[in-house]
Amino acid sequence: MSISDDIEVMPSKETESPGRTPVPSAPPVAVDTETGTGSGSGSGFGIAAIKRRWQREAVLQRGSLALRGLGFLFSLLGFIIMASNKHGDWKNFDRYEEYRYLLGISILSTLYSGGQVLRHVHELSTGKLILQRQTSIMVDFIGDQLLSYLLISSASTAIPLTNRMREGADNIFTDSSAASISMAFFAFFVLALSALISGYKLSTQSYI
């Protein structure tokens, strides 16, 4: 008997008996026809991922509301302090272009921040968008960027004038001017943070 007779020939895949046990396949993954995401446990999509996204968007929405609320408060305080900074003679804010510029930007920032707060409160309480989502994100980003620039510009313009005045006389007029400038800086800071959130929303927005 030759060696080749002792070798058992293994059946190929084509010659396997039809009654063999089939190899179990991977379980099917249900796909949501509306969102296009699957619900398989091994994927990064599904209900859990959608919930996490909704929670993240809710946190960003409340964060934007809080920052714009602070921006409204600081802008309003800066406007009130500067508008009431009139003590006669040279101690009237309206005699100085820098202070008038600061007052005007404070009014503009108060109106913008107040309008944004009202819009966000309405959307959170009713669940209805006043503007389309993409338009709303674009308006938030542009508005935050523009007001942040104007606030830091007006505050930086008024600082040299206030410093020169305080070298000669430090009184209630210069103190009020410095307080209004500080409020403008605080408003700039919170609106700049709000602009970062708006920029993040804009970068993660789907346009498909």
Key attributes of the depicted protein:
single chain, 208 residues, mainly alpha, 5 helices, 67% helix
| Basic shape | elongated
What Rg do the Cα atoms give?
32 Å
Report the span from N to C terminus.
73 Å
- Biggest β-sheet, characterized? none
Structural class of the helices, strands and pairings? Answer: mainly alpha
Give the H and E element order. HHHHH
What's the number of extended β-strand segments? Answer: 0
Uncertain residue segments? 1-19, 29-44
User: How much is the average pLDDT?
Assistant: 78
Q: Helix coverage percent of residues?
A: 55-70%
DSSP strand content: under 5%
**Number of distinct helices:** 5
Report on this structure:
The protein is mostly helical and 208 residues long. The protein is 67% helix and 0% strand. It contains 5 helices and no strands. Helix 2 (47-83) runs antiparallel to helix 5 and helix 3 (97-126) crosses helix 5. The model is unreliable at 1-19 and 29-44 (pLDDT under 50).
